Amino acid sequence: MRCAGFWSRGRRGTWGRWHRAVERRIEESVPAWTHLRPSAFAANTRWWAGQVRAGDAVRGTYGALPALLLHEADIAAVAVRALTEGGHAGAAYALTGPEVLTQAQQVRIIGEVLGRPLRWEELSRDAARRRLLADDGFPDTFVDPLLDGYARMMRRRARRSPAPSRP
After folding, report:
1. Extended beta strands in 1-140, E state
2. Is the terminal CB of the chain with fewer CB neighbours within 10 Å at N or C?
3. What CA–CA distances, in Å, run from 30 to 5, 26, 64, 76, 92?
4. Which residues pair with 24 in a beta bridge?
């Protein structure tokens, strides 16, 4: 079984192609396989912890980016079922969370849980890139693929969203 990430479905971008290539290798090398493709991990919001502790704003790019956050315990529960029940060999499951939330909404909700207002502060791509590259805990090799992936998701979202109606 492999937990590949939601991005492998479309196979676009660096990470999607990489995930799909790994899936193909697994499919070619073992008689039975199951792929789990989770959407955004809830734990990814920990990236903002330092900013939340330091003030009332989280600064980043693509605050309007929608995500279906999925808790890691839910991924584990699906993995247990796939490993212990029959009928999952050769299957690929896209796993999503229960609700679409933008990054800005996620920050607001974190503030509500903490009992204080938090807000999203939008950065330009260049400013966000500099911030991520300066973060010793964030892998430099993931910065551009992440930002490129976010931009692609926003473009797809824009194409799918109908234009607002006007009275």
Report:
1. 2-3, 34-38, 57-60, 66-68, 91-95, 100-102, 119-122
2. C
3. 20, 6, 41, 22, 15
4. none
